[in-house]
Write a structure and sequence with these properties.
Number of strands: 0
CATH class of the largest domain: Mainly Alpha
Number of domains: 2
Strand content: under 5%
CATH architecture of the largest domain: Up-down Bundle
Helix content: over 70%
Largest sheet: none
Radius of gyration: 24 Å
Order of helices and strands: HHHHHHH
Length: about 160
């Protein structure tokens, strides 16, 4: 094993870090890990990323699925609605990962605009007869919840 070879030469290469290197080699070679190190979420420790902890992200994903399933017949409006709904989800995730309040607020503000844009696109499609009114109403209900939650996160 390459790590063991490096550790044997560690007194020359690593100096004071020799004990740390030996410890890591022992841990890695003895398979003392409790789970595999493949960056896949485990059922016990999900959610693993910051946006998974936000309810608003889950609702935004739900809205994305509703927009996709709405069956908007106008290709331009369908594309606009899907792009805006995807952008909302992505900006919510970005805002959750930011550290400073102004960075979070900027991303959540953009996400709020994307949510309203997606809702408006499906409403216009319904007005023109390119989508069902029921789909537009369901998206509008979710959009209202998302906008309220994002507004609170922005402040």
């Amino acid at each position: 094993m390459r790590l063991q070879a490096v550790a044997r030469r560690g007194d020359r290469v690593y100096g004071e870090c020799w004990e740390v290197v030996l410890f890591m080699v022992r841990v890695l070679s003895a398979a003392e890990r409790t789970r595999t190190m493949n960056n896949q979420p485990n059922a016990n420790d999900c959610p693993v990323l910051p946006h998974h902890r936000l309810r608003v992200y889950g609702i935004a994903v739900e809205m994305l699925v509703l927009v996709r399933d709405a069956g908007i017949r106008d290709a331009k409006l369908r594309d606009e609605a899907l792009r805006a709904a995807k952008g909302a989800c992505l900006n919510i995730a970005e805002g959750a990962a930011r550290v400073t309040r102004p960075d979070k607020a900027r991303a959540f503000t953009i996400a709020r605009g994307e949510v309203v844009e997606a809702c408006a696109a499906i409403e216009i499609a319904a007005l023109l007869g390119d989508a069902r009114g029921e789909d537009a109403r369901r998206v509008a209900l979710l959009a209202d919840r998302i906008v309220a939650m994002l507004t609170r996160l922005i402040r």
